[in-house]
Amino acid sequence: MKKTLFTGVATALITPLDINGVNYEQLGKLIDWQIDEGIDALVICGTTGEASTLSDEEHTEVIAYSVKRAAGRVPVIAGTGSNDTAYAIWLTEQACRDGADGILSVTPYYNKATQKGLIKHFTDIADASSVPVLLYNVPSRTGVNIEPSTYAALAEHENITGIKEACGNISKIVETAALIGERLDLYSGNDDQIVPLLAMGAKGCISVLSNIMPAETRRICTSFFSGDIKTSAELQCRYIPLISALFSEVNPIPVKAAMAAMGYCSNYLRSPLIPMEERGFQTLISLMRREGLNV
Questions:
Q1: Low-confidence ranges of the chain (pLDDT < 50)
Q2: Which of the following is catalytic: 151, 164, 172, 264?
């Protein structure tokens, strides 16, 4: 029986950065706050965590630090994906040694692997991992989509236990759900599709929104799981304007601006990312205030 890493909401956590590098004091406080707010798991060094511009040393140190800070209170899922299979394996093995509870492996980007290439890539990573592997499909960023039949093939691997699905195509997701059954846990990778995927049997979501509203985002899932579908759907609809604002520029530009406004970090991103443009920022702040956030 495959292990379910978490049920509910995992925050795709930002990485607090400044001119000196990773700000571990801010990262520690952020991890504690997320856990105190009731979040179900944390994803460290994913897209939202700016993994693509972290050095090898920073990447592995942030994962190791987060595992120690979380101290078993919630699962820590380490982003270890790459378009280089050998490098992804190295990151995965390091994360396993450092105590990560699971790893999140994104579809190779730029190379544009074939579906057979994806199967080999993810199989090799899963073979090297001593913890459960979640596959991350986000074709808007990578240029490659994991097809439902490819998921079905990968579901045979005992270490591949779930999917962070951010393709946005509900028809494809339904097809995937039909093929994988209970062999893979499904998680929404898009905050605007949490309830639709829960309706298809998803275990929860991996969220950007929960960086700023962990308890409220989690309530979307807990309401659904308790049978209060009406409240879950109402919350999903209520937060759509805020979700849209959080993705009005490429992630994690807006959420970094939001977290800085809340006092959790500096509004510092590594090039080629730059701070959010003022017009969009003011819209974001207005929506955050509407939800009672202290900005």
A1: none
A2: 164
Q: Is the pTM of this model over 0.90?
A: yes
Architecture of domain 8-228: Alpha-Beta Barrel (3.20)
Summarize pLDDT for 166-198 with one digit per residue, the tens: 999 999 999 999 999 999 999 999 999 999 999
- 136 classed as catalytic: yes
pLDDT in tens, 44-55: 999 999 999 999
Q: What is the 3-state secondary structure (H, E, C) of the chain?
A: CCCCCCCEEEEECCCCEECCEECHHHHHHHHHHHHHCCCCEEEECCCCCCHHHCCHHHHHHHHHHHHHHHCCCCCEEEECCCCCHHHHHHHHHHHHHCCCCEEEEECCCCCCCCHHHHHHHHHHHHHHCCCCEEEEECHHHHCCCCCHHHHHHHCCCCCEEEEEECCCCHHHHHHHHHHHCCCCEEEECCHHHHHHHHHCCCCEEEECHHHCCHHHHHHHHHHHHCCCHHHHHHHHHHCHHHHHHHCCCCCCHHHHHHHHHCCCCCCCCCCCCCCCCHHHHHHHHHHHHHCCCCC
Domain-wise residue ranges, the chain: 8-228
- Residue 270 has what pLDDT? 96
Residue 203 annotated to the active site:
no
What percent of the chain has pLDDT above 70? 100
- Tell me what pLDDT residue 2 has: 87
